[in-house]
Design a protein that fits this description.
Peptide Methionine Sulfoxide Reductase, Chain A, 5 helices
Length: 164
């Protein structure tokens, strides 16, 4: 099993999006790469500097990191700065945060491909994970608990695995 941390706007939809894929074994929403320890949701919403992020544990024999990143780029606007959909603020920035230096070449290659496709530099942070604090329990699997809850992603993206 491998782990990657992806920030793709509001973590409710991003978690639900990645939970649909067969190769994803586990997800957890939280706050990453900010300056303070163990922030609350209220602090994050008040510009603490953390990104709403999903920790993704995946089985690389069933879904490669490149395939995960392919899906990530379907679900984010990689040119938006501190914004995804109608959500705006530093906590909604997009990012790929890695924990193993061996992941970096594959991530860089996929990001380079996306930049070529888009014809410009991406606004997606590519950084080693500095810290990750799990979000409060009510945020975990939020859209499973609240099926009609808010999601910045188009609903059809939450059912891609059935089409693969």
């Amino acid at each position: 099993m491998k782990t990657i941390y992806l920030a793709g706007g509001c973590f409710w939809g991003t978690q639900k999006f990645f939970d649909q894929f067969d190769g994803v074994a586990e997800t957890e929403v939280g706050y990453a790469n900010g300056p303070t320890e163990n922030p609350s949701y209220q602090q994050v919403c008040a510009d603490s500097g953390h990104a709403e992020t999903v920790r993704i544990v995946y089985d690389e024999d069933r879904m490669s990191l490149t395939e995960l990143l392919d899906m990530f780029f379907l679900a984010v606007d990689p040119l938006s700065v501190n914004r995804q959909g109608p959500d705006e603020g530093i906590q909604y920035r997009s990012g790929v945060f890695y924990t193993e230096p061996s992941q970096l070449p594959e991530i860089e290659a996929r990001m380079h491909l996306e930049e070529e496709k888009r014809g410009q530099k991406l606004a997606v942070e590519l950084l080693p994970l500095q810290n990750f604090y799990p979000a409060e329990e009510y945020h975990q699997k939020y859209l499973d608990k609240n099926p009609t809850g808010y999601c910045h992603l188009p609903r059809h993206l939450l059912h891609l695995e059935k089409e693969r």
